[in-house]
Amino acid sequence: MLWLLFFLVTAIHAELCQPDAENAFKVRLSIRTALGDKAYAWDTNEEYLFKAMVAFSMRKVPNREATEISHVLLCNVTQRVSFWFVVIDPSKNHTLPAVEVQSAIRKNRNRINNAFSLNDQTLEFLKIPSTLAPPTDPSVPIWIIIFGVIFCIVIVAITLLILSGIRQRRRKNKEPSGVDDTEDKCENMITIENGIPCDPLDMKGGHINEAFMTEDERLTPL
């Protein structure tokens, strides 16, 4: 009689837990990828731990405090560690709504991950979105970064202005020397008229070339 009852319960559970069944979720684990040489084998003990973690999560949902490990069913377990699971309500012989299960898993996702030394990428609930990691505060306040950028821009601008002023002063200092050199060359030029070398007129000092002076002009003082 007990054997027949167990057979009926098993048959009912097999109908409730099937791939793509209503309220069923697929789980995929990448233990080797996550742990490498420290990877552990997936066996009945690990399955029991998974059921316990799901039951633990469901017990935190209002009106689901009576959930037991036996209420979590696993099926279609593969060697590459993937399987389906459902949570049942034994009083009514049906699965709990997917919305409740999903909410419970999301709220306790970190606890489940830590139990298996995995994360959201290596322990995947395919129909349950991954939990978002809490935002990390930057090590340096944002206002300091903005202040540093503005300060650097101001320093660069001041440096460019100083360099521009130095270049302009150098150009101004070079221009008069060029003019003086031209005047000196003009003063040193010697003209030749009628075969007689003549000094040009000194425009600065009012010097007159004596070659063109008459006898009276030479004797008459200026």
From TrEMBL:
TM ranges: 140-163
Residues of the Collectrin-like domain: 21-222
Signal peptide: none
Molecular-function annotations in GO: protein homodimerization activity; transporter activator activity
InterPro entries in alphabetical order: Collectrin, Collectrin_dom
GO biological process, one term: SNARE complex assembly
Key word Glycoprotein present: yes
Bilayer disposition of the protein: Single-pass type I membrane protein
Keywords: Cell membrane, Glycoprotein, Membrane, Phosphoprotein, Signal, Transmembrane, Transmembrane helix
Protein name as annotated: Collectrin, amino acid transport regulator
Source organism of this protein record: Cebus imitator (Panamanian white-faced capuchin)
